[in-house]
Amino acid sequence: MNSIVTPIPRETLIIIGNGMVGHHCIEQLIERGALTRYAVHVFGEEAQRAYDRVHLSEYFGGRDAESLALCAADYYADHGVQAHLGVQVLEIDRERQEVVTSSGRHAYDQLILATGSYPFVPPIPGAEGNSRLVYRTLDDLDDIRVAAAKARRGVVVGGGLLGLEAANALKSLGLEAHVVEFAPRLMPVQLDDAGGAALKARIEALGVGVHLSRATQEIVLGEEYAYRMSFNDGEFLETDLIVFSAGIRPQDALGRSAGLDIAARGGVAIDNACRTSDPAIFAIGECASWNGSVFGLVAPGYSMARTVAAQLAGEPGEPFTGADMSTKLKLLGVDVGSIGDAHGATPGAKSYRFIDEATASYRRLVVSADGKHVLGAVLVGDNSYYDTLLQYAQNGIKLPSDPSSLILPVSDGAPALGADALPDTATICSCHNVTKGAVCCQVEAGITDLGELKAATKAGTGCGGCSALLKQVFEHELSARGVAVDKSLCEHFAYTRQELYAMVRVEGIISFEELLAKHGRGHVGCDICKPAVGSILASCWNQPITDPLLVPLQDTNDTFMANMQKNGTYSIVPRIAGGEITPDKLIALGAVAKKYDLYTKITGGQRIDLFGAQLHELPDIWGELIAAGFETGHAYGKSLRTVKSCVGSTWCRYGVQDSVNMALVLENRYKGLRSPHKIKFAVSGCTRECAEAQSKDVGVIATEKGWNLYVAGNGGMRPRHAELFATDLDDASLIRYIDRFLMFYVRTADKLQRTSVWRESLEGGLDYLKAVILDDSLGLGAELEAQMQLVVDRYECEWANALKDPEKLKRFRTFVNDGRGDPDIHFVKERDQRRPVRASELHLIPVTEELN
Predict the structure, then answer these.
(1) So which cofactors does this thing need (predicted)?
(2) How far apart are the C-alpha atoms of 739 and 124, rounded to whole Å?
């Protein structure tokens, strides 16, 4: 007799909202096996399935809706989830336990509200059409793009997180961008006055206008631009479009109309289980209010989703008891961090502050009254301090005797809190609530690959802010268990860059294919190993980058020996050693720029940049430049870029040595040296330091007795002063020590590692480096000098080499069978020179236009 198995009837669970939090709830339900108990339906107003709003601004950078999607197109169907996208829920009938849509009624046993929030737009007279845009959904971004196509200037109302992202979006669309903020500082919730001032200085330096303490009274027709915003102080600002990012409001309309309890400041009221006043209805994310607070970050929403999913799966779950609103982000390229009690509102709290007005950097550390614990912090300009400070704050770790040391600059960079100092309860990834203990458990279970760890725990897959700390903890745990940490360059080479460099040198390997055959796996390599090996081969043997053995390994800039610009054209940067140039060469540069209609600019490294050349024009332009006595400036390569100099003792009344001559000697010696990262030099003729040598990888400053040598400095996003390495050197000693320093760096640095980062990673620090270079403690001095001399002796201008070889010139074509230029590249005139057409100006280009 056959037994009949009666299936257990499933209850119906409806989720209203398919944003990041609603989607995460579905993931959790699937992961916990709850779909055996529930038939799940999800309703979303937008036609697209859930997408990543954290990286929404990347939509303007080339990403599309599909690349932003949080799951594969068949994810819901494969797991039995019924997705109703582009369907708005109009009403919740609590009495009948049904939701009402335009297509009918749907019964539920359990209901989750995940409707999120909507942008708040103040009731300003005249705000309509392109003067009432918002920045929330992909459709909103499409509206902004359309409006920007006929605009020159755009304004964002609101200087918070989203407001600054929106300003960055306008800037990326080619508009002149402005931010108008009602408060007296930017990011008023996260930053204090000094932090807001530092952020304002940095953002204004990027060309974004900032208008604080401004309230818009009305919007009327403008005179020079489409609209005029009239402020409460009598001032006004004209613009072609206005994006409102003045905060969010909980999307609680369904809950209100259904009679659920609503918090005083909006949001469906929930308890610690995320239940509403109706036991059959939960609310999660920005539509929910816990203890009167609405949380506008994704991590608290994810936490609520986990709490609800655990209950529905019949598992013990962590109650939701609030959220840490600490945040680390990059706004318009500027690091900003806010931790805990950033304003020092806790009674008795004390603050330590570091202010650097020269670089608009600011750090504030808020500690408890007894000085033992971190309560909060503010960071503007450098988030390398963030992970350490966050762990001190979250885990109650006792402060060092001098708390200020945690935010003061030190020669070795931001102080790091070792992974062994963190308790197992320390949160590593707040988006997915992954603790150090969870990471340890995965290592104990046998995971030894970082990618596998991320797949198993989801850590590092949310906002990505925890990636560095996650890697540090993971590798520490592997090492603690005696597991060798895999530092392979990539899947094709189970070696570090340093090990591959040694193989190439010792075995005399001259091609990627030979190295792959002897020491690698696979047949073709990848985007990680090919450029790294190409750089190693060039460093060892100084082969021209145009050599057929190296060309397939390079990125676009090295392949075409020019820097590609945003509109697909290229820049030409001839070498002007030491900044010294004759009138005849200046005339030659001017003639070439005029002939090919190139935008011309003098750089900070004492060179002349020529912009706007199309690919097919590069050989002709370089042919004329080389005939005039110029050679490649290697602006496209990871190599020596410039040796900047002042005029020195030849002309300057303060100069004590001939800095120009020394700059010429150094640049002509080291030009063409390929290295892990770009290298810059400077030579100053006296201690007045006009060449800014102390901000360079190699800096030389004249003294009465000779030269002082500085090493491992850099400008850029994280500036670092070079360190004094040796004093009062004669010419020969100076060059000998630079030879050794550079070759030791080339030999031992990791891929794409600047001299400053390499120096900070050396065990023993500067003293060790001095011992190796100055005292020859490793006995490598003569070998390093000989290596450098080989590079010097083999130097050849790469463009001169390419122009002599018809085969190499074949790749300088926009189209394989056509010698013409790219018809989609357009320019307009500005200040008597041409520049690329901005996205907002494309409508100005005639349809029939063709470029010669």
Answers:
(1) [2Fe-2S] cluster; FAD
(2) 66
**Strand, coil or helix: 669:** helix
Q: What is the spatial distance between Cα 17 and Cα 89, in angstroms, rounded to a whole number?
A: 9
How many other CB atoms are there within 10 angstroms of residue 848's CB atom? 5
Q: What is the DSSP string of 747-770?
A: HHPPTT--HHHHHHHSTTHHHHHH
Q: Helices 497-507 & 731-748, crossing angle to 10 degrees?
A: 110
pLDDT in tens, 167-215: 988 988 889 999 999 999 998 888 889 888 889 988 888 888 999 999 9
Q: Is the pTM of this model over 0.70?
A: no
Torsions phi, psi for 176 (to 5 deg) = -75, 120
* Backbone phi, psi, residue 708, to 5°: -95, 135
Which residue type is seen at 201? Answer: A
- Per the CB < 8 A criterion, the answer to whether 752 and 677 are in contact is yes
How confident is the model at residue 414, as a pLDDT? Answer: 45
Query: Are 607 and 643 within 8 A, CB to CB?
Result: no
Q: Residue 502: which residues within 8 A CB-CB, separation 6 or more?
A: 747
User: Exposed, middle or buried, 817 (CB in 10 Å: 0-12/13-18/19+)?
Assistant: exposed
Q: Are 167 and 133 in contact (CB under 8 A)?
A: no
SS3 314: coil
The two structure tokens encoding residue 274: 């995320």
- Among residues 488, 450, 447, the alpha carbon closest in space to that of 467 is found at 450
Q: Are 735 and 742 in contact (CB under 8 A)?
A: no
Strands (E), 8-109: 11-16, 38-44, 82-85, 89-93, 98-101, 104-107
Q: Which residue has the tokens 């755009």?
A: 154
* 533-554 confidence digits (pLDDT tens): 888 888 888 766 556 555 445 5
Cα dist from 37 to 80, 145, 241, 798, whole Å: 12, 45, 50, 68
Query: Is the Cβ–Cβ distance between 828 and 839 less than 8 Å?
Result: no
- Can you read off the two tokens belonging to residue 410? 């030190």
DSSP 156: E
DSSP code per residue over 345-414: -STT-EEEEEEETTTTEEEEEEE-TTSSSEEEEEEES-GGGHHHHHHHHHHTPPPPSSGGGGTS--TT-S
Straight-line distance from the first to the last Cα atom of the chain, in angstroms, rounded to the nearest whole number: 88
